[in-house]
Amino acid sequence: MRKGFAKGCLALVLAMLLPLALTSCNNTETGEVIPEGMKIANCEGDDFRLYVPTDWNENTAYGIAGAYYNLDVQSTVSVVKYLITEEMNAALPAKGDAAALRQRLEAFSLQYCRPAISEQPLVSGLKVEEDEDASEVLLDQLVAHRAHYLVTVDGQNLHYLQVIGEKNSAFYVFTYTAHPDLYEALLPSVERMLEEFIFADPYLPDEYPRLPAEEGTPIPAGMAVVSNADVDFHFYVPVTWEVEYKQEIYSAYLASDRSNVSVIPYVPDRAMSVIDFFELCKNEMVKVGGEGSFTLLSQEEVTLGGRAAMSYVYTYRVGETVYQYRQVIAAYKSMMYSLTYTATPENFESHMADVDAMIGAFVFR
Protein backbone atom coordinates (compact mmCIF):
# COMPACT_ATOMS: atom_id res chain seq x y z
CA MET A 1 0.00 0.00 0.00
CA ARG A 2 1.09 3.55 -0.65
CA LYS A 3 2.40 5.63 2.23
CA GLY A 4 0.43 8.76 3.07
CA PHE A 5 -2.96 9.91 1.86
CA ALA A 6 -1.63 12.61 -0.46
CA LYS A 7 0.46 10.01 -2.31
CA GLY A 8 -2.66 7.88 -2.68
CA CYS A 9 -4.66 10.75 -4.13
CA LEU A 10 -1.82 11.64 -6.48
CA ALA A 11 -1.72 8.03 -7.63
CA LEU A 12 -5.40 8.27 -8.48
CA VAL A 13 -4.78 11.43 -10.49
CA LEU A 14 -1.94 9.75 -12.41
CA ALA A 15 -4.10 6.72 -13.05
CA MET A 16 -6.82 8.91 -14.53
CA LEU A 17 -4.50 10.83 -16.83
CA LEU A 18 -3.06 7.88 -18.73
CA PRO A 19 -5.68 5.43 -20.01
CA LEU A 20 -6.90 7.48 -22.98
CA ALA A 21 -3.36 7.86 -24.29
CA LEU A 22 -2.13 4.27 -24.02
CA THR A 23 -1.29 2.36 -27.21
CA SER A 24 -0.55 -1.26 -27.90
CA CYS A 25 2.14 -3.04 -29.87
CA ASN A 26 2.64 -6.45 -31.41
CA ASN A 27 6.36 -7.00 -31.85
CA THR A 28 9.62 -6.86 -29.94
CA GLU A 29 13.22 -7.93 -30.09
CA THR A 30 14.15 -11.54 -29.40
CA GLY A 31 17.13 -12.71 -27.45
CA GLU A 32 17.57 -9.31 -25.81
CA VAL A 33 20.73 -9.01 -23.73
CA ILE A 34 20.32 -7.05 -20.50
CA PRO A 35 23.47 -5.31 -19.18
CA GLU A 36 25.09 -7.09 -16.26
CA GLY A 37 23.72 -6.04 -12.89
CA MET A 38 20.75 -4.25 -14.44
CA LYS A 39 17.10 -4.90 -15.24
CA ILE A 40 14.45 -3.46 -17.56
CA ALA A 41 12.20 -0.65 -16.27
CA ASN A 42 9.99 -0.29 -19.37
CA CYS A 43 6.30 -0.42 -20.17
CA GLU A 44 4.86 -2.43 -23.02
CA GLY A 45 5.23 -0.57 -26.31
CA ASP A 46 8.22 1.58 -25.32
CA ASP A 47 10.52 1.94 -28.34
CA PHE A 48 13.56 2.30 -26.10
CA ARG A 49 15.13 0.48 -23.18
CA LEU A 50 15.63 1.99 -19.77
CA TYR A 51 17.94 -0.30 -17.80
CA VAL A 52 18.33 0.35 -14.07
CA PRO A 53 20.55 -1.32 -11.43
CA THR A 54 18.99 -4.33 -9.74
CA ASP A 55 18.96 -2.54 -6.37
CA TRP A 56 16.50 -0.01 -7.82
CA ASN A 57 12.74 -0.69 -7.92
CA GLU A 58 10.78 -0.56 -11.17
CA ASN A 59 7.99 2.01 -11.12
CA THR A 60 5.89 1.47 -14.24
CA ALA A 61 2.42 1.07 -12.73
CA TYR A 62 1.03 4.14 -14.49
CA GLY A 63 2.39 3.55 -17.97
CA ILE A 64 5.66 5.50 -17.70
CA ALA A 65 9.08 3.84 -17.85
CA GLY A 66 10.84 4.50 -14.57
CA ALA A 67 12.23 3.36 -11.24
CA TYR A 68 12.97 4.58 -7.73
CA TYR A 69 15.77 3.88 -5.27
CA ASN A 70 14.21 4.84 -1.93
CA LEU A 71 10.45 5.07 -1.42
CA ASP A 72 10.76 7.48 1.51
CA VAL A 73 13.41 9.84 0.07
CA GLN A 74 12.90 11.31 -3.41
CA SER A 75 15.07 9.31 -5.83
CA THR A 76 13.41 8.52 -9.17
CA VAL A 77 14.20 8.18 -12.84
CA SER A 78 11.78 8.20 -15.76
CA VAL A 79 11.76 8.41 -19.55
CA VAL A 80 8.84 10.06 -21.35
CA LYS A 81 8.32 10.25 -25.11
CA TYR A 82 6.75 13.46 -26.48
CA LEU A 83 5.51 13.27 -30.07
CA ILE A 84 6.45 16.41 -32.04
CA THR A 85 3.38 18.33 -33.18
CA GLU A 86 3.33 20.73 -36.12
CA GLU A 87 3.01 23.67 -33.74
CA MET A 88 5.94 22.45 -31.66
CA ASN A 89 8.11 21.90 -34.73
CA ALA A 90 7.35 25.39 -36.02
CA ALA A 91 8.29 26.96 -32.68
CA LEU A 92 11.72 25.28 -32.54
CA PRO A 93 14.92 25.82 -34.56
CA ALA A 94 15.25 23.59 -37.61
CA LYS A 95 17.35 20.43 -37.64
CA GLY A 96 20.83 20.55 -39.11
CA ASP A 97 24.35 19.67 -38.06
CA ALA A 98 25.27 18.74 -34.49
CA ALA A 99 25.39 22.39 -33.38
CA ALA A 100 21.94 23.06 -34.86
CA LEU A 101 20.53 19.94 -33.21
CA ARG A 102 21.84 21.04 -29.82
CA GLN A 103 20.19 24.44 -30.28
CA ARG A 104 16.92 22.73 -31.17
CA LEU A 105 17.08 20.45 -28.13
CA GLU A 106 18.00 23.33 -25.85
CA ALA A 107 15.05 25.34 -27.19
CA PHE A 108 12.71 22.40 -26.49
CA SER A 109 14.12 22.17 -22.98
CA LEU A 110 13.63 25.90 -22.33
CA GLN A 111 10.18 26.19 -23.91
CA TYR A 112 8.60 22.95 -22.73
CA CYS A 113 10.60 20.98 -20.15
CA ARG A 114 11.69 23.74 -17.79
CA PRO A 115 8.18 25.28 -17.52
CA ALA A 116 6.76 21.81 -16.88
CA ILE A 117 8.97 21.69 -13.78
CA SER A 118 8.74 25.30 -12.60
CA GLU A 119 4.95 25.48 -13.01
CA GLN A 120 4.23 22.38 -10.94
CA PRO A 121 2.08 22.89 -7.84
CA LEU A 122 4.11 23.83 -4.73
CA VAL A 123 7.20 24.79 -6.77
CA SER A 124 8.50 28.14 -5.53
CA GLY A 125 11.89 28.37 -7.20
CA LEU A 126 14.14 26.94 -9.90
CA LYS A 127 17.87 27.52 -10.19
CA VAL A 128 19.97 26.35 -13.14
CA GLU A 129 22.98 24.38 -11.90
CA GLU A 130 26.28 24.22 -13.75
CA ASP A 131 26.88 20.76 -15.22
CA GLU A 132 30.39 19.98 -16.42
CA ASP A 133 29.07 16.96 -18.36
CA ALA A 134 26.52 18.98 -20.34
CA SER A 135 28.66 19.47 -23.46
CA GLU A 136 28.92 16.80 -26.14
CA VAL A 137 26.40 14.57 -24.36
CA LEU A 138 24.89 11.68 -26.32
CA LEU A 139 21.80 9.51 -25.90
CA ASP A 140 22.38 6.16 -27.62
CA GLN A 141 24.73 7.83 -30.11
CA LEU A 142 22.30 10.69 -30.70
CA VAL A 143 23.23 14.31 -30.06
CA ALA A 144 21.46 15.20 -26.80
CA HIS A 145 20.90 18.11 -24.42
CA ARG A 146 21.59 17.91 -20.68
CA ALA A 147 20.20 20.28 -18.03
CA HIS A 148 20.52 20.31 -14.24
CA TYR A 149 18.19 22.27 -11.94
CA LEU A 150 17.84 22.79 -8.21
CA VAL A 151 14.11 23.13 -7.61
CA THR A 152 12.34 24.21 -4.42
CA VAL A 153 9.19 22.12 -3.93
CA ASP A 154 7.03 22.81 -0.88
CA GLY A 155 10.06 24.33 0.86
CA GLN A 156 12.33 21.37 0.06
CA ASN A 157 15.18 21.40 -2.46
CA LEU A 158 15.26 18.71 -5.14
CA HIS A 159 17.71 18.09 -7.98
CA TYR A 160 16.34 17.57 -11.49
CA LEU A 161 18.71 16.23 -14.13
CA GLN A 162 17.29 15.93 -17.65
CA VAL A 163 18.79 14.48 -20.83
CA ILE A 164 16.83 15.03 -24.04
CA GLY A 165 17.21 13.40 -27.45
CA GLU A 166 15.20 13.45 -30.67
CA LYS A 167 14.26 10.40 -32.75
CA ASN A 168 11.20 8.86 -34.42
CA SER A 169 9.48 12.28 -34.71
CA ALA A 170 9.56 12.63 -30.94
CA PHE A 171 11.59 14.02 -28.07
CA TYR A 172 12.70 11.55 -25.41
CA VAL A 173 13.17 13.07 -21.96
CA PHE A 174 15.15 11.20 -19.30
CA THR A 175 14.62 12.76 -15.86
CA TYR A 176 16.46 12.01 -12.64
CA THR A 177 14.91 13.61 -9.55
CA ALA A 178 16.56 13.32 -6.15
CA HIS A 179 16.79 14.83 -2.69
CA PRO A 180 20.19 16.49 -2.03
CA ASP A 181 21.03 13.72 0.45
CA LEU A 182 20.95 11.14 -2.35
CA TYR A 183 21.73 13.08 -5.52
CA GLU A 184 25.53 12.66 -5.62
CA ALA A 185 25.49 9.15 -4.16
CA LEU A 186 23.15 7.85 -6.86
CA LEU A 187 24.63 9.83 -9.73
CA PRO A 188 27.04 7.03 -10.83
CA SER A 189 24.06 4.67 -11.16
CA VAL A 190 22.18 7.29 -13.17
CA GLU A 191 25.18 7.86 -15.44
CA ARG A 192 25.26 4.13 -16.16
CA MET A 193 21.54 4.18 -16.98
CA LEU A 194 22.28 6.86 -19.56
CA GLU A 195 25.24 4.93 -20.94
CA GLU A 196 23.16 1.77 -21.37
CA PHE A 197 20.05 3.52 -22.72
CA ILE A 198 19.17 2.37 -26.27
CA PHE A 199 16.42 2.84 -28.82
CA ALA A 200 14.85 -0.49 -29.76
CA ASP A 201 11.81 -2.31 -31.10
CA PRO A 202 8.64 -1.86 -29.02
CA TYR A 203 9.01 -3.64 -25.71
CA LEU A 204 6.88 -6.70 -25.01
CA PRO A 205 7.35 -8.07 -21.48
CA ASP A 206 7.66 -11.80 -20.81
CA GLU A 207 4.79 -11.58 -18.35
CA TYR A 208 2.15 -9.07 -17.36
CA PRO A 209 2.54 -6.86 -14.26
CA ARG A 210 -0.47 -8.61 -12.73
CA LEU A 211 -2.10 -11.98 -13.23
CA PRO A 212 -5.63 -12.63 -14.52
CA ALA A 213 -8.30 -14.21 -12.35
CA GLU A 214 -7.97 -17.87 -11.50
CA GLU A 215 -9.87 -20.37 -13.62
CA GLY A 216 -13.26 -21.21 -12.16
CA THR A 217 -13.95 -17.67 -10.92
CA PRO A 218 -17.74 -17.08 -11.25
CA ILE A 219 -18.47 -14.49 -13.94
CA PRO A 220 -21.87 -12.91 -14.71
CA ALA A 221 -23.26 -13.72 -18.15
CA GLY A 222 -21.95 -11.47 -20.88
CA MET A 223 -19.15 -10.08 -18.72
CA ALA A 224 -15.39 -10.57 -18.21
CA VAL A 225 -13.54 -10.49 -14.89
CA VAL A 226 -10.89 -7.80 -14.35
CA SER A 227 -9.88 -8.46 -10.73
CA ASN A 228 -7.97 -11.42 -9.31
CA ALA A 229 -7.38 -13.10 -5.95
CA ASP A 230 -5.03 -10.33 -4.77
CA VAL A 231 -7.89 -7.94 -3.96
CA ASP A 232 -11.05 -8.02 -1.84
CA PHE A 233 -13.45 -7.36 -4.69
CA HIS A 234 -14.82 -8.84 -7.91
CA PHE A 235 -14.75 -6.32 -10.76
CA TYR A 236 -16.53 -7.26 -13.99
CA VAL A 237 -16.93 -5.48 -17.33
CA PRO A 238 -18.98 -6.29 -20.46
CA VAL A 239 -17.11 -8.62 -22.84
CA THR A 240 -16.96 -5.79 -25.41
CA TRP A 241 -14.36 -4.10 -23.17
CA GLU A 242 -10.69 -5.09 -23.20
CA VAL A 243 -9.24 -6.15 -19.83
CA GLU A 244 -5.90 -4.39 -19.22
CA TYR A 245 -3.09 -6.54 -17.84
CA LYS A 246 -0.23 -4.30 -18.99
CA GLN A 247 -0.62 -2.03 -15.94
CA GLU A 248 -0.83 -2.92 -12.27
CA ILE A 249 -4.11 -1.03 -12.02
CA TYR A 250 -7.30 -3.12 -12.31
CA SER A 251 -8.80 -1.59 -15.43
CA ALA A 252 -10.45 -2.17 -18.80
CA TYR A 253 -10.95 -0.06 -21.89
CA LEU A 254 -12.85 0.19 -25.17
CA ALA A 255 -10.58 -0.20 -28.17
CA SER A 256 -12.82 2.08 -30.26
CA ASP A 257 -12.26 5.30 -28.33
CA ARG A 258 -10.04 4.39 -25.33
CA SER A 259 -12.77 5.07 -22.76
CA ASN A 260 -11.54 3.47 -19.54
CA VAL A 261 -12.76 2.20 -16.20
CA SER A 262 -10.61 1.26 -13.22
CA VAL A 263 -10.90 0.25 -9.57
CA ILE A 264 -8.24 1.43 -7.13
CA PRO A 265 -8.18 0.72 -3.37
CA TYR A 266 -6.57 3.05 -0.80
CA VAL A 267 -5.78 2.93 2.89
CA PRO A 268 -6.51 6.39 4.37
CA ASP A 269 -4.02 7.60 6.94
CA ARG A 270 -6.85 8.69 9.23
CA ALA A 271 -10.57 8.10 9.78
CA MET A 272 -12.70 9.81 7.16
CA SER A 273 -15.98 9.57 5.30
CA VAL A 274 -16.42 8.89 1.59
CA ILE A 275 -17.26 12.59 1.14
CA ASP A 276 -14.08 13.63 2.94
CA PHE A 277 -12.07 11.26 0.75
CA PHE A 278 -13.46 12.74 -2.45
CA GLU A 279 -12.85 16.31 -1.28
CA LEU A 280 -9.21 15.55 -0.55
CA CYS A 281 -8.79 13.80 -3.89
CA LYS A 282 -10.42 16.75 -5.65
CA ASN A 283 -8.04 19.15 -3.92
CA GLU A 284 -5.09 17.02 -5.07
CA MET A 285 -6.39 17.10 -8.65
CA VAL A 286 -6.65 20.87 -8.53
CA LYS A 287 -3.07 21.07 -7.25
CA VAL A 288 -1.91 19.04 -10.24
CA GLY A 289 -4.16 20.61 -12.88
CA GLY A 290 -4.34 24.17 -11.55
CA GLU A 291 -7.26 26.44 -10.70
CA GLY A 292 -10.20 25.97 -13.05
CA SER A 293 -9.12 22.48 -14.13
CA PHE A 294 -11.87 20.72 -12.14
CA THR A 295 -15.65 21.17 -12.55
CA LEU A 296 -18.13 19.11 -10.54
CA LEU A 297 -21.26 18.39 -12.61
CA SER A 298 -23.32 16.18 -10.28
CA GLN A 299 -23.24 13.94 -7.23
CA GLU A 300 -25.64 11.35 -5.84
CA GLU A 301 -25.91 8.55 -3.30
CA VAL A 302 -25.60 5.05 -4.83
CA THR A 303 -24.50 1.58 -3.76
CA LEU A 304 -21.35 -0.30 -4.77
CA GLY A 305 -21.07 -3.97 -3.88
CA GLY A 306 -23.93 -3.57 -1.41
CA ARG A 307 -22.15 -0.70 0.38
CA ALA A 308 -23.40 2.87 0.62
CA ALA A 309 -21.42 4.94 -1.87
CA MET A 310 -21.24 8.31 -3.57
CA SER A 311 -21.17 8.87 -7.33
CA TYR A 312 -19.50 12.03 -8.67
CA VAL A 313 -19.53 13.24 -12.27
CA TYR A 314 -17.01 15.92 -13.19
CA THR A 315 -14.72 17.23 -15.89
CA TYR A 316 -10.98 17.62 -15.46
CA ARG A 317 -8.65 19.50 -17.78
CA VAL A 318 -5.28 17.90 -18.52
CA GLY A 319 -3.18 20.46 -20.39
CA GLU A 320 -5.47 21.67 -23.15
CA THR A 321 -7.66 18.54 -23.16
CA VAL A 322 -10.83 18.08 -21.10
CA TYR A 323 -11.91 14.61 -19.91
CA GLN A 324 -15.13 13.61 -18.18
CA TYR A 325 -15.31 11.23 -15.22
CA ARG A 326 -17.78 9.28 -13.15
CA GLN A 327 -16.17 8.27 -9.87
CA VAL A 328 -17.99 5.95 -7.46
CA ILE A 329 -16.46 5.67 -3.98
CA ALA A 330 -17.30 3.24 -1.18
CA ALA A 331 -15.70 2.32 2.15
CA TYR A 332 -15.03 -1.33 2.99
CA LYS A 333 -12.87 -2.88 5.73
CA SER A 334 -11.20 0.44 6.64
CA MET A 335 -10.30 1.06 2.99
CA MET A 336 -11.65 3.34 0.29
CA TYR A 337 -12.47 1.88 -3.12
CA SER A 338 -12.74 4.14 -6.15
CA LEU A 339 -14.36 2.91 -9.37
CA THR A 340 -13.61 5.55 -11.99
CA TYR A 341 -14.93 5.78 -15.55
CA THR A 342 -13.00 8.10 -17.88
CA ALA A 343 -13.98 9.28 -21.36
CA THR A 344 -13.89 12.31 -23.58
CA PRO A 345 -17.03 14.43 -23.16
CA GLU A 346 -18.40 13.43 -26.59
CA ASN A 347 -18.18 9.70 -25.71
CA PHE A 348 -19.13 9.92 -22.05
CA GLU A 349 -22.90 9.26 -22.18
CA SER A 350 -22.75 6.59 -24.90
CA HIS A 351 -21.08 4.08 -22.55
CA MET A 352 -23.07 4.85 -19.40
CA ALA A 353 -25.22 1.71 -19.67
CA ASP A 354 -22.05 -0.39 -19.62
CA VAL A 355 -20.73 1.53 -16.62
CA ASP A 356 -24.01 1.05 -14.77
CA ALA A 357 -23.70 -2.69 -15.46
CA MET A 358 -20.17 -2.69 -14.01
CA ILE A 359 -21.35 -0.90 -10.88
CA GLY A 360 -24.30 -3.30 -10.52
CA ALA A 361 -22.10 -6.39 -10.89
CA PHE A 362 -19.36 -5.23 -8.51
CA VAL A 363 -18.98 -7.42 -5.40
CA PHE A 364 -16.87 -7.05 -2.24
CA ARG A 365 -15.42 -10.32 -0.94
Shape: globular
Radius of gyration: 22 Å
Helix/strand-derived category reads alpha+beta
Q: How many angstroms separate the termini? A: 19 Å
Query: H/E order of the elements?
Result: HEEEEEEHHEEEEEHEEEEEEEHEEEEHHE
Q: Which regions have little confidence, pLDDT < 50, spanning 5+ residues?
A: 1-8, 21-30
Residue-averaged pLDDT, rounded? 86
**Helical residue percent?**
10-25%
Approximately how much beta-strand content do the residues carry?
Answer: 35-45%
Protein described:
Helices cover 24% and strands 37% of the residues. The protein is of the alpha+beta class and 365 residues long. The strands form 6 sheets. Strands 4, 5, 6, 7, 8, 9, 10 and 11 form an 8-stranded antiparallel β-sheet that branches. A hairpin with a 5-residue loop joins strand 16 and strand 17. Helix 1 packs across helix 5. The chain starts with a helix and ends with a strand. The chain is built from 7 helices and 23 strands.
